[in-house]
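Supplementary Methods, section 5.1.

A reviewer requested that the exact input to the structure prediction be made available. We therefore reproduce it here, unchanged from the version used in the analyses.
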Amino acid sequence: MNQLLKLILTGILILCFLKMPLIFYRFSGYILFSGFGWLAYDSFQRKDLIDVKIFVILALLYNPFITLPLPHFLWVIINVIVIIGLILNILFAEDNPYEDQTKKDD
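The structure derived from this sequence is encoded token-by-token as follows.
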């Protein structure tokens, strides 16, 4: 589920490079905010504190309620960095992060 969500968020960020109507960018802000919020919550449940910090920062960055007044070229750089980070996170993620690491082999 999380890998699919990360893939959807990456696709939305890639679509933001195209010339779209203003409503798309407003709607994508809500989707990115809620998606990164969910990923932060899930990382917190898995006790992965590094991912929690990263996804909370991204949720605050793409917050549609209180937007950051950054210039366009800076948003492009941020979007490229986030896209690369999400792709690397998808590629190098554990197969099943919910497995109990304390299980003993019999």
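The chain is about 65% helix and 0% strand. These observations are discussed further in the main text.
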